[in-house]
Amino acid sequence: MTQTAPSIVHPVQHRYADPTTDVPAQWNSVLDVLHAHKSVRRYLPDPVSPETIQLLVSAAQSAATSSNLQAWSVVEVRDADRRARLAEVAGGQAHIEQAPVLLVWVADFARLRQLAHDHDAPLDGADYLETSFVGVIDAALAAQNAVLAAESLGLGTVYIGALRNDPERVAAELNLPAHVFPVFGLVVGHPDPTEGTRIKPRLPQAAVLHHETYDLSSQREPVAAYEHRIGEIYTDQGLPYSWTERVLARLASKEALYGRHRLRESLIALGFRLR
Q: Is it the case that residue 107 has pLDDT exceeding 70?
């Protein structure tokens, strides 16, 4: 008698594309939204209200921030021509023009430098690499809160790291002052239901969760299993590559970074000294 393969019935199993993943005993609606995340690259023309963007920013400001520095800001871009120019920086990603809003998240030390100037206070610590990291991390934490908020409202999102292809051009387009750096964009809009994007499985926890100390040697087997699982999804979507091929190609050369190999020079040009 042939046994029927177990079916995927829980969001955690969907996240790993693995019906053998244990179903957690604890669950709630927030976890539903988190595990349903997927990048959306096709949008309806329906508008996103200013009030909704304000709510997303409120959620973003509820994220953790190092020493309460709040060393980030976000620029809301609705103008179609400006979004088209930013899409060009990002390699022609059509969803930047298609969706009604692009949010550009920036590491922002201009505000703190202005505060120091107004109080005639030193700010030498802002020139170090550690402080630059704080701004980037703060922006990322804030943006991820905004993503969760947007998806809880039925909106779709996709990050645009390719704005770092030419940070100086982005800074000029957005009139960013010195000491402000565009970290990434975030498209926000109403998903086109015909897109049919599936939840993309992640690496098994055996590859990313370590206990007490890091163990590299044990990762080959779960990575191989992941290659098989995500390969089935790539095949279903007609994508002509494997996960391994894609990640190795992404890091194979400086040309594969599409200009982002200049990141240090761009940061320095925009006022980050990186001591």
A: yes
| SS3 at position 264 | helix
Contact between 41 and 47 under an 8 Å Cβ cutoff? The reply is: no
Residue 72's H or E segment, with its range, is strand 72-77
Pair of tokens at residue 109: 């030390």
CB of 65 within 8 A of CB of 141? yes
- Position 3 scores a pLDDT of 55
Structure tokens at 227: 């290659």
The residues, ordered by sequence, that sit 6+ positions from 164 with a Cβ below 8 Å of its Cβ are: 182, 183, 184, 259, 260, 263, 266
Given a contact cutoff of 8 angstroms between Cβ atoms, the answer to whether 106 and 75 are in contact is yes
Alpha-carbon span 43 to 40, nearest angstrom: 8
Tokens at residue 248, please? 């190795």
Per DSSP, 99 falls in state S
Residue type, 52: T
- Report d(CA 16, CA 25) in Å as an integer: 17
**Which of 153, 202, 160, 200 is closest to 74 using CA atoms?**
160
**Distance from C-alpha of 166 to C-alpha of 140, rounded to nearest angstrom:** 19
pTM: 0.95
**Angle subtended at Cα 253 by Cα 250 and Cα 256, rounded to the nearest 5 degrees:** 45
Average pLDDT over residues 92-107: 98
User: What is the C-alpha radius of gyration for the chain, rounded to an integer number of angstroms?
Assistant: 21
β 180-189/101-108 pair status: antiparallel
Are 182 and 170 in contact, with CB atoms under 8 Å apart?
yes
Q: Beta-carbon neighbour count of residue 164 at 10 Å?
A: 22
